[in-house]
Amino acid sequence: MRRRSPLRPHEPEWTPPPPDPEHPAQVRRILRLFRPYRGRLVFVGLLVAASSLVTVASPFLLREILDVAIPRGRTGLLTLLALGMIAAAVVTSVFGVLQTLVSTTVGQRVMHDLRTAVYARLQSMPLAFFTRTRTGEVQSRIANDIGGMQATVTSTATSLVSNLTSVVASVAAMLALDWRLTVVSLLLLPVFVWISHRVGRERKRVTSQRQKQMAAMAAMVTESLSVSGILLGRTMGRADSLTAAFSKESERLVDLEVKANMAGRWRMSTIGIVMAAMPALLYWAAGISLETGGPALSIGTLVAFVSLQQGLLRPTVSLLSTGVQVQTSLALFQRIFEYLDLPVEITEPEHPVRLAKIRGEVRFEDVGFSYDGPDAARSTLTGIDLVVPAGGSLAVVGPTGSGKSTLGHLVPRLYDVTGGRVLIDGVDVRDLDFDTLSRAVGIVSQETYLFHASVADNLRFAKPDADDDEIRAAAEAAQIHDHIASLPDGYDTLVGERGHRFSGGEQQRLAIARTILRDPPVLILDEATSALDTRTEQAVQKAIDALSEGRTTITIAHRLSTVRDADQIVVLDGGRIAERGTHRQLLAADGRYAALVRGDARLAVPV
């Protein structure tokens, strides 16, 4: 088994930058998300404005009914006014349905854009990012954080326009009816705005903590409930302790959920109570004004005013709640922006080179690499000079941690060199376009990854337009066709989560078949047989031999049984080339390679 940790000691775990302070730039960035849909938003705004104006008209119709139509017995006018109120309700409902449809569509499109942008940014991140980041953390950002913004993104814009228009229209109508009662109705509004702002800040803080806890739980679930996690937990007798650990994490989430839902709840309830009590205050103020000789209000005017004031209550409370919701969502937007702002270290050049025909010569010129960047004190690779002719073979051996796999990862640009150059057919890999590079280099590693899909779909991942004959030919070359054909569903057989319905050797041969289908001229074999038993290794080795024929092959080996026939063998030690030559030459030199061979019983035969 390969004894190399995926998280290297000098690769620190990725942590997000500290949250940005609240400032207009972040709000402007959020608003820019809606820019592609501004035409639809204008349409929603018009619908909202029209709906608000129609709604405000109803109290005036009511006043005319109470002060004119009923007292004077004008039945015709009463009928028209009643029909007008009914028509206003119908129009308001129709406009409400339309604005909900359009605003929800816009919100969901923005959510789609965010999800796609985050996924695309993660696809462009270097391999080092994923070795430092828990899978559950990534999944939580895409699912929980963006999902948590759904209500805000979907309804906030409409809610702001709708409620703001309603408030302005209602206040204007109230002033037209009686300015003194309007002043009484609005006295406490500044206090309410201040309270809602405080509540929003509190909920934002709690929401940030809650999302981090949800990410931690998602990471735990992803790791412990995968097939590998279940196997490890049961064989180590840790199922109960894992359940207890999950229970503790869930308990923390319970506390945070309660805090998030109760944050400022009493303050907001106070606002609701005061505003609900306003009609009584208005009736009292009207009565006192009449008793003290002030101007009298007609019953119709007073009822219409109270109706407007109650109409003002709903959008005002909704506006305050929207403000709280927006501040809460800023914490979620911050977490999404952290991923969108990740620097893309491996990029395609502005004017990339595209090779129509790839011969496959690979050259390393004074290559240096450090996971901590070019100025790091410690380097993983230093001064590597190698040439692998097109169609030739190179074997890289050495002790654990000597930089073997890192050297192989530099060819397909899973990492970029921090010194020197890696060239394919004389072109620096950093100057090649991504399509050319992906066509040029294929990797078969010990850690085979298969999707939870059919065998055929897993193979077609390398070549989506491959027909059945091509898939069968690739499987035959990889020595796996007979086994697939013996299965009840053949090539339609589901491989299971991470391919666990197949043995390790079968998974490796499926990976080899997939690479054969891709047909790359340069092949990197990264310890492809190190985890297999001798019999399975022999079967896989036949598949590898078929795959390597006619290709430039770089074999990174822990076991030495597969490297003796390589055109050139390089021994790495401490990130430098310690020895190079053929198998016989290095044995004759009786150096580091010879010592490694003596430690491999399968090579303890005459050469």
From TrEMBL:
Keywords: ATP-binding, Cell inner membrane, Cell membrane, Membrane, Nucleotide-binding, Transmembrane, Transmembrane helix, Transport. Residues 1-22 are annotated as: Disordered. GO terms for biological process: oligopeptide export from mitochondrion. The keyword Transmembrane applies. InterPro entries: AAA+_ATPase (IPR003593), ABC1_TM_dom (IPR011527), ABC1_TM_sf (IPR036640), ABC_transporter-like_ATP-bd (IPR003439), ABC_transporter-like_CS (IPR017871), P-loop_NTPase (IPR027417), Type_1_exporter (IPR039421). Residues 42-328 form the ABC transmembrane type-1 domain. GO terms for cellular component: plasma membrane. Its main location: membrane. One of its GO terms (molecular function) is ATP hydrolysis activity. It is found in: Cell inner membrane. It is a multi-pass membrane protein. The chain crosses the membrane at residues 41-62, 77-102, 151-173, 179-195, 266-284. SUPFAM superfamilies: ABC transporter transmembrane region (SSF90123), P-loop containing nucleoside triphosphate hydrolases (SSF52540). Residues 362-599 form the ABC transporter domain. Belongs to the ABC transporter superfamily. Siderophore-Fe(3+) uptake transporter (SIUT) (TC 3.A.1.21) family. This is ABC transporter ATP-binding protein. It comes from Streptomyces mobaraensis.
